[in-house]
């Protein structure tokens, strides 16, 4: 992607995301100001994901599969002072770059994220979206109260479009490549060394494809189960078995 005056590099990990990556990249083309660069890190797609990203003039990085591994690879290729990690099925507002840069001008903020509104073709998932918003606060309050009150910890998840300074990201060694899920929450814990985690009062729209496939009841059970077990110290590798990929 052509460089701009902004300091934000957007990193998108992909694996067989041809059904949604085109829409996401078209929305990114409307950013004002534009991102410094858009980096698509592909984990070995067998569909048209890479061709679509190339047609949109994104920078392509080929990687081993695994979201943590892919996002670290994208961060290594990035030249912006701010790293933004975006899922291929999530749409951000056209002033998102300004929001990120303004947020991180506050030196006591180490990482930010947005409020995720989950929606599909036919409906908006208001209930699950509200729960995901509340979970940003209640999960660290329950499981890491000393960090919640003492360090301003909030737990952000992938569809909340995390962003942080590149220097802080690498100072805490980035995403843990051994984690198949919960890598964003783990990064939040590490970033509290450099400041608080801040939830921006702005909305991004994420696909409801997982909820549409599982159903609302199963989705809520799985989300709660994984969150509570992880908070109690259960291995993310074990928890991954409950969280199959949905494309």
Automatic annotation (TrEMBL):
Task: Kindly tell me the pathway this chain contributes to.
Answer: Carotenoid biosynthesis; staphyloxanthin biosynthesis; staphyloxanthin from farnesyl diphosphate: step 4/5
GO cellular component annotations, sorted alphabetically? plasma membrane
Entry's transmembrane regions: 221-239
Q: Which InterPro entries match?
A: Glyco_trans_2-like, Nucleotide-diphossugar_trans, Trfase_2_rSAM/seldom_assoc
The Glycosyltransferase 2-like domain covers 9-138
Instruction: Identify the Pfam families for this entry.
Output: Glycos_transf_2
Source species, domain of life: Bacteria
- Main localisation, per the record? membrane
A single GO molecular function term of this UniProt record: glycosyltransferase activity
Q: Which UniProt keywords apply?
A: Cell membrane, Glycosyltransferase, Membrane, Transferase, Transmembrane, Transmembrane helix
Q: Where in the cell does this protein reside?
A: Cell membrane
Which family does the record assign? Belongs to the glycosyltransferase 2 family. CrtQ subfamily.
Function in brief: Catalyzes the glycosylation of 4,4'-diaponeurosporenoate, i.e. the esterification of glucose at the C1'' position with the carboxyl group of 4,4'-diaponeurosporenic acid, to form glycosyl-4,4'-diaponeurosporenoate. This is a step in the biosynthesis of staphyloxanthin, an orange pigment present in most staphylococci strains.
Entry-linked NCBIfam families:
glyco_like_mftF
Question: What protein does this entry describe?
Answer: 4,4'-diaponeurosporenoate glycosyltransferase
């Amino acid at each position: 992607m052509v460089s701009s005056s902004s300091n934000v590099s957007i990193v998108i990990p992909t694996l067989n995301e041809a059904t949604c990556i085109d829409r996401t990249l078209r929305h990114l083309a409307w950013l004002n100001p534009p991102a410094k660069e858009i980096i698509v890190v592909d984990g070995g797609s067998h569909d048209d994901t890479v061709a679509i990203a190339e047609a949109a003039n994104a920078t392509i990085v080929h990687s081993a599969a695994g979201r943590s591994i892919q996002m670290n690879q994208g961060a290594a290729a990035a030249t912006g002072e701010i790293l933004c990690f975006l899922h291929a099925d999530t749409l951000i507002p056209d002033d998102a770059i300004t929001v990120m840069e303004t947020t991180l001008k506050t030196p006591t903020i180490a990482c930010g994220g947005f409020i995720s509104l989950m929606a599909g073709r036919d409906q908006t998932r208001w209930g699950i979206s509200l729960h995901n918003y509340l979970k940003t606060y209640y999960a660290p309050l329950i499981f890491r109260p000393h960090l919640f009150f003492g360090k301003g910890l909030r737990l952000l998840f992938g569809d909340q479009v995390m962003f942080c300074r590149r220097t802080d990201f690498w100072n805490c060694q980035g995403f843990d490549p051994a984690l198949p899920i919960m890598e964003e929450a783990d990064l939040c814990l590490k970033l509290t060394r450099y400041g608080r985690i801040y939830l921006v009062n702005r909305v991004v729209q994420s696909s409801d494809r997982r909820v549409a496939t599982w159903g609302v009841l199963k989705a809520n059970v799985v989300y709660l189960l994984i969150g509570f077990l992880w908070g109690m110290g259960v291995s993310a590798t074990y928890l991954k078995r409950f969280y199959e990929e949905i494309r």
